[in-house]
Design brief:
By secondary structure, this protein is an alpha/beta fold. The chain has 2 domains: 180 residues, Periplasmic binding protein-like II (D-Maltodextrin-Binding Protein, domain 2); 154 residues, 3-Layer(aba) Sandwich (D-Maltodextrin-Binding Protein, domain 2), CATH 3.40.190.10. It is 44% helix and 15% strand. The protein contains 14 helices and 10 strands. Strands 1, 2, 3, 4, 5, 6, 7, 8, 9 and 10 form a 10-stranded mixed β-sheet that branches. Helix 6 packs across helix 14. The termini are far apart. It binds fe (iii) ion. The site of fe (iii) ion has 2 residues, from loops.
Length: 351
């Protein structure tokens, strides 16, 4: 009896470990695709299932954050099983390209569908990565305490009038590093460092949590204004939970710098891994993600804006947020500026 229990426990443990680390595809197995994904959105599951239904190709997904995936690709080298890589930040896509972790892809479908501004420069062999969706870094504020005119530009977030009111996630998170890198490109090093110093001086609390936590902290009154990616806000706007409805009721939202250089926009993108073994499947997957169904999914499922311009979406939250003016800063400038921004953050004490 005890032996049987022990065996059952061992089998259960084995099953658990198999679920936790799915077996990766054999070399050149056309029916399997190994995907390294930093897209941390549960609803993406339906997207990958759609691909499998359409092609019969199974998707083995390895999840991590952008930095974790980059270091994993580096340490695996030529032995890496990764076929396609999905990252959620422009500077990380740029970094991976610089580090030689991708390979150029030539595809008439991708070139026709993804605008040139949303893919890496084509040096004659194709692009190294392609944007699949975009997201804006917006401000949310407590309507009871803060006037919209106080928070309608990124610069104003450093204004002493907002002392003790600002909340953000860690300054070193890729979403913030890319926003700050764009600001460095837009305003130069002196103004950017001074601005970052002002942000730190205005903090309601030490940076912690994710973007959704900042939104909730505005609604609870702990913060007066916060910075968040648009899709976290849109998710709350579409939620049917009473507590989420209450959050949305209490806050205002603004696209910063509509009268100036436009709101900072980041990109989620895909690339073929440098040492992809299933290259045909990888290309099919990438073209699938640029297709109408997948593009509509990015909007309707995860509340992002599709990279493909002509795609029609039916997302009430995106419709409510409306059209807005986007900044015009190159991904390479944002990527190059990361190291300098991190030094500034260290100097001004922005954790
Ligand atoms: Fe995110």
């Amino acid at each position: 009896m005890h032996r049987r229990l022990a065996l059952a426990a061992a089998l259960a443990a084995l099953a658990t470990s198999l679920v936790a680390t799915p077996a990766l595809a054999q070399q050149g197995d056309a029916k399997v695709l190994n995907l390294y994904s930093a897209r941390h959105y549960q609803t993406d599951e339906a997207l990958y299932e759609g691909f499998t239904r359409a092609t019969g190709i199974r998707v083995n997904r390895i999840d991590g954050d952008d930095n974790g995936i980059l270091s994993r690709l580096k340490s695996e080298g030529a032995a890496s099983p990764a076929d396609v890589v999905l990252l959620v930040d422009a500077a990380r896509l740029w970094r991976a390209e610089q580090d030689g972790l991708f390979q150029p892809v030539r595809s008439a479908v991708l070139e026709q569908r993804i605008p040139a501004a949303l893919r890496s420069e084509d040096a004659g062999q194709g692009s190294q990565w392609f944007g699949v969706s975009t997201r804006a870094r917006v401000t949310v504020y407590d309507k009871a305490r803060v006037q919209p005119a106080q928070v309608d530009s990124y610069a104003k977030l450093a204004d002493p009038a907002l002392r003790g009111l600002l909340c953000t996630r860690s300054g070193s998170h890729p979403y913030n590093l890319s926003l700050f890198g764009a600001m460095l490109d837009r305003t130069g090093p002196q103004a950017t460092e001074q601005w970052l110093r002002g942000l730190v001086a205005n903090m309601a609390r030490a940076p912690k949590g994710g973007d959704t936590d900042q939104i909730r902290a505005v609604a609870s009154g702990e913060c007066g204004v916060a910075i968040t990616n648009s899709y976290y806000l849109a998710r709350l706007m579409r939620s049917s939970k009473p507590e989420d409805r209450a959050v949305v009721e209490r806050i205002g939202v603004l696209f910063p710098d509509q009268a100036g250089q436009g709101t900072h926009v980041n990109v989620a993108g895909m690339a073929m891994a440098r040492h992809a073994k299933n290259r045909d499947a990888a290309l099919r997957f990438m073209e699938y993600l640029a297709g109408d169904a997948a593009q509509i999914y990015f909007a309707d499922g995860n509340n992002e804006w599709p990279a493909v311009a002509q795609v029609r979406t039916q997302n009430p939250a995106l419709a409510a947020l409306g059209d807005f003016r986007r900044e015009n800063v190159s991904v390479s400038a944002i990527g190059r500026n990361q190291a300098m921004v991190q030094q500034m953050l260290d100097r001004v004490g922005y954790r």
